[in-house]
Structure formats: structure tokens, C-alpha cells
Write a sequence for this structure.
């Protein structure tokens, strides 16, 4: 996915100004920056939830800027929002089935099996209502539901939000493992150091503009990035 010259926002207000972002095959890319920088807005623009006023977003050799999320999902991109990303009244397994709503029903057992292989905890708790699950398990259900469609690129908006440090590590391990299966990941994270440590590359966004980008390690080693965006 390659986004260039993106200007986008809400109503008449532009939040993003001429922003660029690229996720190559198999990469984990971390998008960091202060609150209100426009990280979630950029992710929404990539997934078609808001339409850029200007700019291009190419995915698998097609222009997707301005297309609907429904179309973009069919191209092989899935998005896990930060909140309201599961059906709390349904069981874990029913959530996975909802995630696979675009699929031929015959494919569901095999796809669920793959998700359970990635998240053995979910197999154990597959008949449990998601509303009764912990934050970490809910996040697994949300990610697992997106994986049902076997996307090539997975967008995660703050997957570690609200989780205890131990669960943050667990979710990050899971993301790493999912990436090793060949899936590219773009994530927005408040846990900037941890996400950069795992990322192939990272982007710092502030006030709706690109500030710095580079390998995850280069950003971690950059004293100015450390001081301004990683809390010293
Ligand atoms: N639906 C919306 N309508 C109008 N303005 C919005 C909407 N969503 C976000 N904004 C505004 O857009 C700006 C960027 O918000 P965004 O959520 O993209 O930032 P962020 O970098 O993801 O921040 P955070 O880390 O706090 O989630 C903020 O000023 C926010 O108030």
C-alpha cells in the first residue's frame, strides 16, 4: 500500500496535510505521534472510511482512494478499529463467523481452524460470550475476526489500548506471529517504543504532517524522536 499526498479530514476541516505512508509486502509498520496527530484519521483514509480530498492510495496495483471499505476489504485489506470491534452479545466463534461474512460458508471451518491455531486461547473459549471476556481476549477475537478473510494487509488501531503490560506483550507477540505468516501489518500505537521495536519501519506523524520516518530501530535510536515523541 502506498499513500501519497493525502489531504483529508472531517467536514470542511483538514486534519491530514500532504501525508505519505507506505507498507510493503510482509512489513510491520508502526504509526506513532502525539494525541490528535491524525494517526487514526490516516488509517481511516487508507481503509475508505473517510475520503481524501487530495492524494493517491495504491493497493495491489489499484487506486483505492475514495473507494468504500466494502470494496477495499475485497481487495485484501482488513481494519480493526480501536473500539466497538467485537459483537459482545455473540460468542467468540460467532464473532469469527461474522468476520467471515463475505466467505463461502464451506470455507468457514478451515478459516476458523487457522485462527484457533494462532490463538489457542480462543479455541478454549470459543463458546463464551465475548462480553464476558477480558480485554486481551476481546482483542484476539477482534483480530481473529479480521483474519477470517485472510487479508494481505491488516490495519490495527491501537491494539494494545487499555491492556495491562503483560497483555500488551502478549498481543504484540501475537501480532509478530501473525506477521510471520506473511501478512503485512500497519498499526497505530501509543506504546510507541514497543511497537517500534517490533516494526520493520515507522512513521512519526504530528499535527497532521509527516515528521520522521525510517526503520523501527533508526527511530528508536534517533535522540530527537526519543525526546519529542517517546518520552525521553
Ligand atoms: N469524527 C470526527 N469528526 C471531527 N473531528 C474528528 C473526528 N475524529 C477525529 N477528529 C479530530 O481529528 C484530529 C485527529 O484525530 P485522530 O483520532 O486521527 O488522532 P490520533 O493521532 O489518532 O490521536 P489519538 O492518539 O488521540 O487517538 C483531532 O483533532 C480530532 O479531534
Amino acid at each position: 500500500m502506498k499513500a501519497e499526498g493525502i489531504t483529508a479530514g472531517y467536514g470542511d476541516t483538514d486534519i491530514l496535510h500532504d501525508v505519505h505512508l507506505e507498507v510493503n509486502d510482509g512489513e510491520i509498520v508502526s504509526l506513532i505521534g502525539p494525541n490528535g496527530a491524525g494517526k487514526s484519521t490516516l488509517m481511516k483514509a487508507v481503509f475508505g472510511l473517510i475520503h481524501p480530498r487530495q492524494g493517491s492510495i495504491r493497493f495491489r496495483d489499484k487506486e483505492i482512494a475514495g473507494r468504500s471499505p466494502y470494496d477495499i476489504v475485497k481487495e485484501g485489506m482488513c481494519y480493526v478499529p480501536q473500539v466497538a470491534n467485537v459483537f459482545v452479545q455473540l460468542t467468540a466463534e460467532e464473532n469469527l463467523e461474522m468476520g467471515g461474512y463475505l466467505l463461502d460458508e464451506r470455507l468457514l471451518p478451515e478459516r476458523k481452524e487457522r485462527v484457533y491455531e494462532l490463538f489457542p486461547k480462543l479455541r478454549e473459549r470459543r463458546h463464551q460470550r465475548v462480553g464476558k471476556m477480558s480485554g486481551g481476549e476481546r482483542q484476539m477475537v477482534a483480530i481473529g475476526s479480521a483474519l477470517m478473510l485472510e487479508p494481505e494487509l491488516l490495519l490495527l488501531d491501537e491494539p494494545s489500548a487499555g491492556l495491562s503490560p503483560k497483555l500488551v506483550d502478549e498481543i504484540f507477540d501475537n501480532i509478530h506471529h501473525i506477521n510471520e505468516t506473511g501478512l503485512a501489518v500497519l498499526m497505530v500505537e501509543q506504546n510507541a517504543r514497543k511497537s517500534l521495536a517490533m516494526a520493520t519501519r515507522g512513521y512519526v506523524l504530528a499535527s497532521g504532517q509527516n515528521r520522521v520516518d525510517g526503520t523501527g530501530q533508526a527511530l528508536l535510536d534517533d535522540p530527537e524522536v526519543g525526546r519529542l515523541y517517546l518520552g525521553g
